[in-house]
# Entry
Amino acid sequence: MEISLQLGTLLVEPSDLAALASFEDTPLPIEIADLIEAGDFVGRVNQTVVLYPRGTIAPRRLLLIGLGKRDEVTNERLRQAGAIAVRQAQTVQAAAFNFAINGDAPVRTDEGAQALTEGILLGAYRFLRFRTGLTDAQKFAVEKATIFIKGSEEQARAGIAVGQAVARGVIYARDLVNNPGSVVTPKVLADEAVALGGRLGMRVLVLDKPQLTSLGFGGILAVGQGSANDPRFIVIEYGSAQEGKPTICLVGKGVTFDSGGLSLKPPEAMETMKSDKAGAATVIGAIQAAAELKLPLHVVALVCAAENMPSSTAFRPGDLITTLSGKTIEVLNTDAEGRIILADGLHYAQRYNPTAIIEVSTLTGAIIIALGSHATGMIGTDQPLMDRLSQAAAVTGEQVWQLPLWQEYRDMVKSEVADVKNLAGRPAGSITAAAFLAEFAGNFPFAHLDIAGTAWTESPSKPYETRRGTGVGVRLLVEVLRGYTR
# Structure
């Protein structure tokens, strides 16, 4: 979709649909006030009214969107307003629509333009790859959105460019998650990374099963050994290590399908397990955006890709695994497989001497019990790094909630027959999973993001979300990376 800028007044510009976002405490223009009954629209957050002016103003249809009180308006509210506008354009099949704010929003011009762009592009997202026999109406897509501005055109254009890159990263992540495990296998995930590197000039390294075996990637190999689809370890490197330039390692869990292995999941818990590659999708989408934005950083995305299947060759409860680090893992449950493959990825990250290691995974059902679908669990070893993530969450609207990582939790994952065990029981399940991961991150600043509750939704709570894969974490990570450049 094309996003463009225009100076001028929305109400005098002909269009099939014009969207006007208005504050709760700001009067509507007189020509609109005459079209609506008093009290029908007061500007509450995300309140909408559609008007048909019949020639009294230039647009054929006018969508009013509430932003709430002016002093309380955030970029997140603008992001949601942009999504509401594009959804209405889809509903009325307007190929193009215009958008403006009634008054001045208390946000920076570039940040507001970025948020609107993200909302518009993400709100328009649909996954139709496997739909057949669609009518023209079902295939309809909005082609253009024009944002009317009052501030700096230069700043607005810069914000739109950032919003477009970020949205493309989110959409890429959503597509990877929404494609089934029969389509996106570990090999296909690696092929995607190679193609991405070719498009954007990034270095990509893919280790296949023989290479993983010779190098000692015991965790990834164990989890993947029950599947006909061999595992892969994928390295995507943007920029290069230089003195004075931060190196950020992003580690993603890429279980392309998780049956639970021999500790088989019940059928209803297996239905959405193509989403177990969401951590990998997030870090791939984030590094794509970083490359498109040409951030002056060294970013390394490390993807641990395997399929967890039951078979005569599958790893078993009771197995003892020697990981890339040399540390050993006692397997108590093969459905706690994500932390096992991530053990190899986190240790590999240490060779870059990183400024920070941020790992993203759909790791535990326990985080859904703790936080539901509205926040990502955050646990780590470095408070300044987690503060960066919290600040980025406030900007992006991708909420995180920090949980503790005390020594008592780290003691819970110790094993009597190995260095660590992959399950420490039901109590504090999300925290002990993070404690397990921390054993493999060395002394580098480390943060774990558990997106098990936020990576997939059947009931979207925000207008720019869609059912199924959400692409959560891409916007958060890009904002963190941009923070290192300021």
Notes: Residues 2-151 form a domain with the Leucine Aminopeptidase, subunit E; domain 1 fold (CATH 3.40.220.10). The chain has a mean pLDDT of 97. The longest strand covers residues 247-258.
